[in-house]
């Protein structure tokens, strides 16, 4: 009964409990809706989101360096992979990872800091305007004009310009060369857009310089010397896989080089000394040691009978060869005593000596120390880094090169770089009948004319002078099409890492093509422009006037440079040769370097009777340490932002090829110059002049004798 009663009394309570629960849930839901509508209105939420979006845009405009926390972490992680040279301060990266409140506070602090820096630069620029001479001020106006032009072209990827950046065997960036089979820019490369990158130099980087190691570390030439192999060299140019960030030490007892023209006859032996050179000196009379000097007696030469007799005999053999008039630019294969280079220099002939990579005596370094032109290269499987049809003559004395081997590729390369109607002067030791027969057959097959052949009784050399054809008509007389003609679409100027081919290039035929006419006699050649230049003539004239004004008003008198100690100069980003032409009154020579990614203006430089070479500044240059007295870089760094993975290697290379006491003049954007100044200070260079106006500036620095402690 009790159980029944309990059951009856409990049944009516079940529906009541369920209703209470439903009511409670409804009441709580209604309360949540009321509270949410009071504190989180839709209009407030939309307004908040819009305000945050506008703030983000304004922050990006005023402080482009701002990054998200995840991006900052990734940057720090990548920095840890850089070489020991550039030690990045990790505290800055870690401090960017924090709460959102701290992040907003940092952005505001960054804005204030940038405003202070901007005001400081304005004040500094105003004070500089009052202190600088009028010449430098006028020069800066020119820089301002160039800066505006650069600003307009800032979005242009320089890789797309009509340059000579062709690496048919390899590509340092790990991508294709971007050219189609006809030599044009591929559609894939045309579609690629320029990426906006950060600053060229990491402002947070700390530089701890170290000396290069190895057996011949004081004469280290990257891309030529093998690393850690005791002085062995590559057969072809082959650069290290990683960036070269070490500084080359000075030879023991190194001193400032002898000034020109005294260096023509003697140099400081310790500046170039090494064991193989010492052994070589014991067998030669034209170069001997006297005290601390290496002497080059004017009456002695590698050529028996003297170099003057040798040059006079060539003029007698071919009267059309007028040194310093019709013949101005010569390539001399191999370096010996440089007596030929020195003698031709007295006759207004500029001779570029090609020191071969297998020369363990490093005679090219001796040539450079004497104040004459030389580069290091190789006659192997690749083209030389020169345009086609630019040398008035190619010379090879006492040659031991097998020109006819491997399908005659080496002689065909000489045919490529020789001007139409140019001369190939070959002197050989008598006795190698097989080589003579092979060369004779090859030169006949490419229609070279033998102008003269003479065995000189005094020098005991057999001298042959060949001439490249000046037109294509003679090729029709060939009985066999061997070697075959190269494809018409192939660009003869492409020579950066381009393999040699056993084919013959046809000559230009139309009047508007380069090479149809021989240039004017020197020195009219410097300022006389052929018809094939077309509209470029006006640009070249303007470039001439531009650099002439800058050099006379600023470089020669406003930089504090002692030009009596300047001989070897490099223009690291030459265009039309205006900088070199403006220095013709000085006792200097200028190596005009046209970057491989820039417009192909090197043929114009040669046409004017000047000399130059192609190069990619993401790699070391083919020369010995301490080769140059002055380096000139006009907007070089700002054009390399999209190319070089480690731009600091350019600064390291400048340190390698510049002599202690040498100078560097840099014209570029302030965003480049400001970190560069700090980098030079870490290398203990003297900053002798800095000048800026708006976003452009100029800096002149001098290298010191400082080297890192071992």
From TrEMBL:
GO terms for biological process: methylation. Residues 57-196 are annotated as: Disordered. Keywords: Glycoprotein, Membrane, Methyltransferase, Signal-anchor, Transferase, Transmembrane, Transmembrane helix. This is Methyltransferase. It is a single-pass membrane protein; Single-pass type II membrane protein. The keyword NADP does not apply. Its EC number is 2.1.1.-. Belongs to the methyltransferase superfamily. The chain crosses the membrane at residues 18-39. Residues 102-144 have a biased composition (Basic and acidic residues). It is found in: Endomembrane system; Membrane. Residues 145-163, 171-180 have a biased composition (Acidic residues). Gene3D superfamilies: Vaccinia Virus protein VP39 (3.40.50.150). The keyword Transferase applies. GO terms for cellular component: endosome; membrane; trans-Golgi network. One of its GO terms (molecular function) is methyltransferase activity. Its main location: membrane. The lineage of its organism: Eukaryota, Viridiplantae, Streptophyta, Embryophyta, Tracheophyta.
């Amino acid at each position: 009964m009790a159980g029944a009663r309990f059951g009856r009394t409990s049944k009516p309570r079940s529906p009541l409990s369920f209703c209470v629960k439903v009511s409670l849930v409804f009441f709580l839901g209604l309360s949540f809706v009321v509270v949410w509508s009071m504190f989180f209105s839709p209009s407030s939420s939309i307004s908040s989101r819009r305000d945050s979006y506008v703030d983000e845009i304004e922050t990006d405009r005023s402080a482009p360096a701002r990054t998200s926390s995840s991006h900052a972490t990734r940057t720090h992680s990548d920095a840890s992979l850089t070489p020991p040279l550039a030690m990045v301060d990790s505290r800055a990266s870690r401090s960017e990872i924090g709460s959102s409140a701290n992040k907003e506070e940092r952005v505001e602090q960054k804005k204030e800091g940038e405003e202070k820096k901007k005001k400081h630069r304005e004040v500094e620029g105003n004070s500089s305007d009052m202190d600088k001479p009028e010449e430098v001020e006028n020069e800066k106006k020119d820089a301002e004009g160039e800066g505006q032009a650069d600003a307009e072209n800032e979005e242009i990827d320089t890789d797309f310009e009509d340059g000579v950046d062709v690496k048919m065997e390899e590509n340092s960036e790990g991508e294709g060369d971007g050219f189609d089979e006809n030599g044009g820019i591929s559609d894939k490369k045309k579609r690629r857009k320029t990426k906006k990158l950060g600053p060229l130099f990491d402002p947070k980087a700390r530089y701890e310089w170290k000396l290069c190691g190895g057996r011949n570390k004081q004469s280290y030439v990257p891309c030529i010397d093998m690393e850690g192999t005791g002085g062995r060299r590559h057969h072809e140019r082959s650069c290290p896989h990683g960036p070269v960030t070490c500084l080359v030490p000075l030879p023991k007892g190194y001193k400032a080089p002898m000034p020109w023209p005294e260096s023509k006859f003697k140099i400081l032996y310790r500046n170039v000394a090494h064991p193989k050179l010492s052994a070589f000196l014991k067998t030669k009379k034209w170069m001997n040691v006297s005290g601390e000097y290496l002497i080059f007696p004017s009456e002695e030469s590698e050529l028996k009978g003297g170099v003057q007799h040798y040059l006079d005999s060539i003029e007698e053999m071919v009267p059309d060869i007028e040194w310093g008039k019709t013949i101005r630019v010569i390539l001399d294969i191999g370096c010996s005593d440089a007596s030929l280079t020195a003698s031709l220099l007295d006759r207004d002939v500029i001779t570029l000596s090609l020191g071969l990579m297998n020369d363990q005596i490093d005679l090219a370094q001796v040539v450079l120390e004497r104040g004459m032109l030389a580069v290091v290269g190789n006659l192997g499987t690749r083209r030389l880094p020169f345009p086609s049809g630019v040398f008035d003559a190619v010379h090879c004395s006492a040659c031991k090169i097998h020109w006819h081997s491997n399908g005659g590729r080496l002689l065909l390369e000489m045919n490529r770089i020789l001007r139409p109607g140019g001369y190939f002067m070959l002197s050989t030791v008598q006795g190698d009948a097989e080589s003579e027969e092979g060369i004779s057959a090859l030169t006949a097959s490419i229609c070279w004319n033998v102008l003269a052949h003479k065995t000189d009784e005094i020098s005991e050399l057999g001298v042959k002078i060949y001439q490249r054809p000046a037109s294509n008509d003679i090729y029709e007389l060939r009985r066999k099409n061997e070697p075959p003609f190269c494809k018409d679409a192939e660009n003869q100027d492409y020579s950066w890492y381009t393999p040699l081919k056993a084919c013959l290039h046809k000559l230009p035929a139309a009047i508007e093509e380069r090479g149809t006419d021989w240039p004017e006699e020197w020195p009219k050649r410097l300022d006389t422009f052929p018809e094939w230049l077309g509209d470029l003539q006006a640009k070249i004239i303007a470039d001439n006037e531009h650099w002439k004004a800058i050099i006379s008003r600023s470089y020669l008198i406003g930089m504090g440079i002692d030009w009596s100690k300047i001989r070897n100069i490099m223009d690291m980003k030459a265009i039309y040769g205006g900088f070199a032409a403006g220095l013709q009154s000085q006792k200097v020579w200028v190596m005009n370097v046209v970057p491989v990614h820039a417009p192909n203006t090197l043929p114009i430089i040669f046409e004017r009777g000047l000399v130059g070479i192609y190069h990619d500044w993401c790699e070391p240059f083919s020369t010995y340490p301490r080769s140059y007295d002055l380096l000139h870089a006009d907007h070089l760094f700002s054009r390399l932002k999209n190319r070089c993975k480690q731009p600091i290697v350019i600064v390291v290379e400048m340190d390698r090829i510049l002599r202690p006491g040498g100078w560097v003049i840099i014209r570029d954007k302030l965003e480049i110059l400001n970190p560069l100044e700090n980098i030079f200070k870490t290398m203990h260079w003297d900053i002798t002049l800095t000048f800026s106006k708006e976003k452009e500036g100029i800096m002149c620095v001098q290298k010191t004798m400082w080297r890192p402690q071992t």
